[in-house]
Every structure is written in C-alpha cells, then in structure tokens.
Amino acid sequence: MANLLIVDDEQSYRQLLRLVFETDGHNIRTAMNGREALLMLEEEGSDVIISDVKMPDMDGIELLHAVRESLPDIGFVLMTAFATVDTAREAFKLGADDFIQKPFDVEELKVIVKKAIEKQALIDENKAFKRAQRDRGSVRNIIGHSDKMQAVYQMIETVAEVQSTVLVTGESGTGKELVARAIHDLSPRAEKPFVSINCGAFTETLLESELFGYVKGSFTGANTNRKGLFEAAHHGTIFLDEIGEMSPAMQVKLLRVLQERRVRPVGAHEEILIDARVIAATNRDLKQMADDGSFREDLYYRISVIPISLPPLRERRQDIQELVNHFIRKFCDQTGRNLTIAPQTVSLLENYAWHGNVRELEHTIERAVALERGEEILPERLPDHITNYNPARINAEFDFPDDGINLSTHLDNLEKTYVVEALKRTSGNQTKAADLLRLQVRSLRHLLDKHSIRTLSAQMRSSAD
Predict the structure, then answer these.
(1) pLDDT (tens digit per residue) in 209-246
(2) Is 307 in contact with 167 (CB distance < 8 Å)?
(3) DSSP label of 266
(4) Total structural domains in the chain?
(5) 219, 305: one domain
(6) Do 173 and 273 have their domain in common?
(7) What was the pLDDT predicted at 400?
C-alpha cells in the first residue's frame, strides 16, 4: 500500500485514477493543479505523484521542478495528451520516473506506478539503513563516558531534532566540529549537505565571497559565477568554526543573513533564499567579547540560542584511557601493527594537563606509535614535557608577595613573556608562534600591537636568516 497524489485538472481522470488505485489498496488524494498539489504535500507527503502536464495555474513540468527542489526522491509519473519529444526530454531531465501518453492503458499505468513505488521503497530502505549506521557512528566518533561527556551526548540528541542555532564552545582541540557533525547526522537534515568553514582562516573579503558566493565580473579573477557555502548548505547545515575571529563588518552581514534567511552574492543585485541550519563554534568567551564591544551583542544572542560547552580534557581525565586506546587502534590500523600501552605510560598521560586537549593527545599517540619498535608503548616514547610534568612542583613555585600584586599588570607582563618566548622558539614565525599559544594568527597580531612588539618578529626572522 502506498500514498498516491493524483494531479489533473480534468475531474474524469481524477475519478478514474482514484477508482483504479483505491481498488489496489492504495491511499489516494487528488488535486486540480500543481499549486494545490504543493499545498497538500506541505500537509502530508506522498510516495508517488501522478500528474498531468497541461494544467492551469501551475502545470506538471513546473510542479515536477518545484517538487524536486524539496523532495528529490519522491516518485513522479507524468501524463499528457500532447506528448512531444521535447516535453518528454525535459520531464526526464528534471527527474520524472516515467512518462505516459493519454489516453493510456490502465494496466500499463499500473505497472509504471508499481515500479515507481518499488523504487521509492528501495530508496526509503536505503535511507533507513544509512541513518541507522550514521546514528550508531556519529556520536561514537566523540570518545568518552565521563559524566560531563554523557551530558554532552544527551544535549546533542536533544537539539538535533530542532532547527535552532547552536553555539558550541570549548578550548581548541576539544572536538567542536565532531559535535556539530553529530547534531547534523542525527537531525532531519542528515541527508543534506554539511558544510564547514573556519572563519579565522580568511580575510574579510575572502570570507564574504566564500559564505555568500559571487557573480562573474564582480572583482578581478571572478571569471564565473560561484555558489557560496550558505547556498551549498541549502536544506542542510553550515558550521561556522572560530566565529569569534569574524570582523565587525562581517558580523553585521551574517546577522542579516540569519534574520532574513537570504544571501546576496558579491556583485549581485538579487538575493537568494536559503534554508541552512547554523552551528557556530569558538574557543573564545563571546559573552565577554559582547560585553566589551568586540563582538556584536545581537549576533551573540542570535547564534547562542542553544549553547553546548565542551569540557577540556583535564576535566575528564577518566576518558584518557579510552581515548588512548582509540588512537592506538587508529594508527596501528594504518601501519598494520598491533601495539599495547604500558600502565606507567598511561599514568603519565593521565597526569598531564593537556592544554591542547584531545588533539594534542592524538598527536602524542601518533608520535609514540611511530617511535615504538617493540610491542608495548613505553614512557620513553613520550615527549619530555609529559614525562617530566609535575603539577605539585609547579604549584610549589607559585609565589604571592606579602604586600600583594597589581593583577592586571602582572597578567599583562605574563602574557607578553609568553608571546616573546613563542616568537623566540619559532624564530619570529607568527603562524608557528600562534600555534604554540593556541591562538589564531589575527589574535597574536593583536597581542603584538597591544604590547608594542610587532617589529620583534621581523627582527627575529632577520636574525634567523
């Protein structure tokens, strides 16, 4: 039994087809034209549409085009008394399952519709299988069974079914994009695109053209029209990573897109309607940035409808063993090896602070697997800063003067000290120094200006050369 929607402006055909297919046990609805059919589809979907071509208001070809925009997999059979080669070619180009000429043989039409129903059933079965596989795997990609991670999993499953904007916060390396992908995979938009962009990796001009697209001739090098990522994510999800690095001008443009649900490609006069769920992420305190004016307050509240905060690895140390085992399997599978890890090695890993979080742990295990020549990963395969790490010693070195300190000045001096040290270790390379400090390059340059040491990196590069 299937749900069929019959669309024809002639009542006699609607009655005939209702009788034919209801006799076979199908559920039948009828519409007089394409516009009425679209309204019915909004209320309740159908498995197969059987539509005439020539109809007033909206004909069958226009209906097929509109349906394929939002329901690309639904079965669609066209009927016409005025069949031409061009009409048939256009119908199949738009994705019609079949095409039959009036007056038709009822048995032939029943065979055509049966094939369309069987095709739809296979598509649904395949979707269900993929959805089951994805549902089992999407959250599994985020490793950890600590209470804090269980709360994250529960939040992912809760927000996946709604369409609200989500803001994922957490330190670098905590897995913010994995959370965004899990939300998408568990959502009704799962079959549609998941598009990701790092907002801190582009200049303002490039970011605008990446997000919104551009038209041919809008700037030098724009030799063709290019679709933006918002348009590419239509009916799906767009993930805006490091949104805190977005310039004030781009924040204004993004806010307008979120409010109007329309984008205007660079150089275009017309706007494009888009339907993309937005998930944003940042390792910065956007609320504080909004309070001090460096991030738009209205945009902050627009993107943080549903906040999800990821805990740093040092706050869920009970997950480290599980993560370590996962990464060992991952890198051993790539090399065809079979390694275990010594208990004392695990203890050292669990003792470390992991300022780079899961990403730093992954790189550490990759290094250990590559260096280990035996069958068990020993402590010697870990970097010195991990094997020599002693939080008790660090705490003991903390000194608080009897007469107190100027905290603001002390923190500024400490910040400057770390920036200078990072530049020294990288011979003035700002990109590498920013990586050491877990910062975006733009943020590092802001600190260089703040402490009046922008020329220092150039001097260090010159000395290195």
Answers:
(1) 999 999 998 888 888 999 999 999 999 999 999 999 99
(2) yes
(3) B
(4) 4
(5) yes
(6) yes
(7) 65
- Nearest one of 52, 109, 116 to 79, comparing CA atoms: 52
Range of the domain at 67: 3-129
pTM equals 0.62
pLDDT confidence bin for 256, thresholds 50/70/90: very high
d(CA 143, CA 320): 9
Helix (H, G, I), strand (E, B) or coil at 183: helix
Q: Which helix (H) or strand (E) holds 376?
A: strand 376-377
Residue finishing a domain among 129, 156, 189: 129
Rounded CA gap, 192 and 229, in Å?
13
Task: Please tell me the distance from the alpha carbon of residue 249 to that of residue 231, in angstroms, as a whole number.
Answer: 20
Distance CA 419, CA 396 (A): 24
Domain assignment present for residue 134? The answer is no
Are 442 and 284 within 8 A, CB to CB?
no
Tell me: the pLDDT tens digits for 343-394?
999 999 998 989 899 999 999 999 999 999 999 999 999 999 999 887 666 5
Query: Alpha helix (H) ranges present in 145-296?
Result: 147-160, 176-185, 204-212, 229-232, 248-260, 286-292
Residue labelled with tokens 């070619």: 89
Task: Indicate if 182 and 293 belong to the same structural domain.
Answer: yes
- Report DSSP letters for 287-298, one per residue: HHHHHHTSS-HH
Residues 119 and 37 in one domain: yes
Cα(188)–Cα(185) distance, integer angstroms:
8
CATH (domain of 180): 3.40.50.300
CB of 308 within 8 A of CB of 168?
Answer: yes
Residue 322, φ and ψ in degrees, nearest 5: -65, -40
Looking from the CA of 417 toward its CB, the CA atoms found within 13 Å total: 6
Q: Is the peptide bond before 312 cis (omega within 30 degrees of 0)?
A: no
Q: Are 9 and 56 in contact (CB under 8 A)?
A: yes
Q: Is residue 401 domain-resident?
A: no
Verify that 306 and 318 share a domain, yes or no. no
pLDDT band of residue 137 (cuts 50, 70, 90) is: very low
Name the 3-class secondary structure at 29: strand
- Which of helix, strand or coil describes residue 105? coil
The pLDDT score that the predictor gives to residue 458 is 75
pLDDT tens for 286-315 read: 999 999 899 999 999 999 999 999 999 999
| Model pLDDT for residues 3-18, shown as the tens digit of each residue | 999 999 999 999 999 9
Query: How far is the C-alpha of 409 from the C-alpha of 113, rounded, in Å?
Result: 77
